[in-house]
Specification:
This protein has 144 residues and is an all-alpha fold. β1 (136-137) and β2 (140-141) form a beta hairpin. The protein is flat and about 85 Å long. It has helices at 11-17, 21-33, 50-62, 85-95, and strands at residues 136-137, 140-141. It is built from 4 helices and 2 strands. It is 31% helix and 3% strand. InterPro entries: SDHF4. Residues 58-70 have a biased composition (Polar residues). Residues 31-50, 57-144 are annotated as: Disordered. It holds the Pfam family DUF1674. One of its GO terms (cellular component) is mitochondrion.
Length: 144
Amino acid sequence: MAGVARYRLPSVLRAIYTPSPAARCFTVSAAQSSKHSRFAPTPSPPRLAPEEQEIFENLQQQSTGAFSTPRSPPQINQSPQSQPEEVLQSLADEELHPDLRRGAKPEFEGDKNPRTGEIGGPKNEPLRWGGGGDWSYNGRVTDF
């Protein structure tokens, strides 16, 4: 408690307040450990020389996008309708994984089911694929 203004406590409070030796050790060790980062004692690679560190950082910046797929350059001064729809469809197909299981084609277009009149419902009849009354889509049961 050096450097802290001390004032005299009444004798009853002094008996209660007097810290035990274990508490003193704890506070001293806590004070000493706060001086250093708790990450400092961990093992780490040796520091590089400043020139080598600069070379390393330059190489790291150069390789940042080396393994990512290149994006097509943006088309400037082109209207959105200038690209044919076939190309747009092929780009959409390329984004999907080839092993992706596609579901059944929708039975109708739009939001309203022409048979039931339901708006915003499923595009396929759920019982079509299921057997024994299971609510399933493409063989996957959805009512547990």
